[in-house]
Amino acid sequence: MHRRTTEADWAETRSLGTAATRGALTSAVSTWTRFVVQLATMVIVARLVGPAHYGAAATALVAVMGAELVRSGGITWLIGRAQTLTAAAVSTLHRLTVTVGSAVAAVFAVLTCIVPPDALPAGVLTFPTLAVVFLAAGVSAVPTALLARNLRFGLIGTAEVSAAVVSCVVAVMIAATGGGAAALLVQSASYAVVLCGIVVTACPWRPGRPAQLRTLRSELAFAGNATVSQALDWAVRSIDRIIVAALFGNAAAGLYVQAAQLAVLPIEQVNGPLRRVAVPALARMIDEPDRFRAAYRALLTLSCSVLWPVFAVLAVLAEPVVVTLFGPAWSGSATLFRAMIPMAMASVVAGITVVVAFAHGLAGRQTLWECLVSRPGTIAAYGIGAVWGVQGVAAGSSVSAVLLVVPGYLVIAGRSGLGLRDLLVPLIAPAGIAVVCAAGVAAVVVPLEAAPLITLVVGAAVAAGLWVALLLVIPATRRTLRGVGRVVLHRVPEPASAG
After folding, report:
1. pLDDT tens digits for 434-477?
2. Cα separation of 251 and 94, whole Å?
3. CA 465 from chain center: how many Å?
4. Which end of the chain is less packed: N or C, by CB atoms within 10 Å?
């Protein structure tokens, strides 16, 4: 690793395209490794604690999701996209994230002394574990962002996988000894601590003399808008489970949360590494409209070509997936999960729109859209859907997501130089792949009438074969894969302005 430094930039960036693509692939590999570990843990813990304990923990885990606003919020996006960033500015941003994380941790410490343990899902451990999560998030936010800015995605991936392994072992041990909801909360705290320790130790950057806040007004305005946008997303992704828990009980909340996790997890495994790389890479292309447009189209095609077929096939295999992974007690999650499939597919597209907003410096426009239209509309859909029970809440999330994805894109695209055609054309190939994969799987497994595990294995094999064949046959996806391959093999000449 490089020597210690107070500077924001220490990596060579002349080969930005190659480094970014390699970074995306490295990040994707580590993210999928972590996904496998966490999915296995989720399955084991869910089987051990049952829907009721799982639903009780879900309400507390809403706060853990909020910690991502500190660790991966607007300040980290600012560090990723800023063309120039002084050492003093970075030190100030680091102080801000540490202060915010410490302040939230202090609030949880006070609540520990006020709220009776019997009223909490994990008893006396509930608030201390949440305090640890926020404190670790505040300390690690800027070092993680600087590693990403300098394209050290392999290091970030190693840290995340290591943290996932340790935290998952801890969670299974606690669940196996009857810890119930505490297993999920301690898992989050141990993950945050291990990740923080590795990132802070490995990052060559160290804080120096800070800049005055008044000199960073424009930067903090961008970070604030980005954070508000993410906070609204967090609120919307949290309020549905709170509504379900309040209206229909912890067992129903457990089934709902499990279905939502199945819908969100695949998106996080692809959009997470892509966004981490795409924001700083696209930010350097905003003065080259044609190059920016081509990169956006490729990013959208790649994301949807990977995720849309997955969701389409999972819609067909929902029951065998849930019963095989979690057991018969969780079978109610299958219908909820199927109702959330349109929401998941729309979220893939919306996630790439957010990348455009952050990369192009349009976080303020994104925030206005979400404050005035998107998030209120989604919350209203939850409330209306609740009239029809838990299934109605799940369906409401899908209806609102599908209706809002195109208007949301147009609000951002109007300022980024992208048009409606740039959205619709890249979606044609992924939509065709998804339809063919789902139809092929249904044609094989519906007449099969086999046990859930056999149905799942056969369906997955058919889907994988169709998916690979279609990726290689369809011109749009073939061109995208060829472009990625050329960069990986160092056969793409880098423009002089890439860095």
Report:
1. 999 999 999 999 888 788 889 999 999 999 999 999 998 888 88
2. 41
3. 27
4. N
